[in-house]
Amino acid sequence: MTEPVAAPDVQGASLSETKVPVVQVLASNINEIWPSLVHSIKYSSFIALDLELSGLGDRKNLMRKSVDDRYTAIVEAAKSRSVLALGVSCWRVTRDEPEPEYYVQTYNILTLSRDNYTVEPDALQFLVEHGFDFNKQYKEGVSYTPSTEDMIVFKEKKAPEPIRDLFAAILLAKCPVVTHNGLIDIAFLYQSFYAPLPPTMSIFVADLQDMFKSGILDTKCVAEFLIRETATYLEYLFRKCNKRMTDAVAAGKPSINLSFSEHKAIKHWVNHVECFASNQSTGRELCESYANHGYCKSGKSCSKSHNVDEAINSHDKKSKKRKVEGKTPAILSKQHNGEVVDTGCHRAGVDAFMTGFIVANYAIYLKAHPKKAKGEEEEKTSSKKSHYQSRDNHMSVTLEENRDIPLPLVLDPCRRAVNCLTLSGKNIPLKVMKSAFVKPSAAHMRQQHEIAKKSSK
After folding, report:
1. Partners of 47 in the beta sheet?
2. Element (H, E) at 242
3. For 359-405, what is each residue's pLDDT tens digit?
4. Are 279 and 341 in contact (CB under 8 A)?
5. CB under 8 Å, gap of 24 or more: what pairs does 64-67 form?
């Protein structure tokens, strides 16, 4: 039971009229925003995180067959690349039943490494195309010092390290952390704001299990292994969940309810982002690469449609094996003259909010479909049954292992996916579970000691 807090200021508009408030955190205002940020974290039921990075290194190495080889590539990337922005979306349950209600506060923190780092042209181009302001990041990013083998993080600091203190606050909140395709993000968080990454994946996993005692949820893992979505990139899942929620409301079924703070004391630092805006038909052929993977190598020069709403409709038609003519998607949002709306996707704060929205919707969907939540739903075809059998066996074992993890009641339907991180190209996820033959790293144990000592003051 969390300590009671004062009633929040909320916006009464429905989601169709709601722009999500995102607090912009910079070096010049972090002291002003800090009390609100720490308070939001402390009383969260779960926290969704997202990062914008300066690059990922060699993609081929990140897809190596051996998981240990992949980890080596991730460590190399985390040590040579930088976190450019950190998104933190704090979700607090204000009511469990009959429909969950959440109070949501979201922050977008621009960050700037004090050390030299590599910036990959592709990453830079991608971020610029999605509105990332590198001038502001270099001018006003909150400075941090990446971890090194000889540094002691929480004492004798040469300069203020608010992002490290923020990450410590997230660990102290002892609530589930939610990511999307989060293995790399978590590794960057560890290296940038916590301690040097351990030499092996097995030690890293042991550290993570000890750090996140209420577990980690990966929305991509939930989508692939529990929901079995056709596509699993972030914007697709967000819009699919929004459509599913709208359909539930229309049918009189349970859905989630959201309220947002007006942030009156710091409202001059708040941007309102139109996350729920949808796009009318473009009239162009659908780009199958973008529809299925959220990526097209031609980028904005592609002549085909990158409209995610059209991708969802196309996939729904195929799955139902019927044509739907002359109908627009029942997405709870505004229409904008057939143009693609800038919804803020691929900005860390907005992506963190979308990640939280997805897991909240999946939880209520799985509660309504308990067989799917438990992996007991039968597939209609033998090919699908064979395809999912190894996954289901793996996840069923995970469910038993997760029985004692202290999840909030609203997320319990997702328990089977807790502490499972997606491994691209693999049929089963990475389990965040310490081996009996592996000890946590010395650096991690030192950090835990320092965080505990700091929090007791």
Report:
1. 90, 177
2. helix 234-250
3. 999 999 999 988 777 776 655 554 555 555 556 666 655 667 788 89
4. yes
5. 67/201, 67/423, 67/426, 67/430
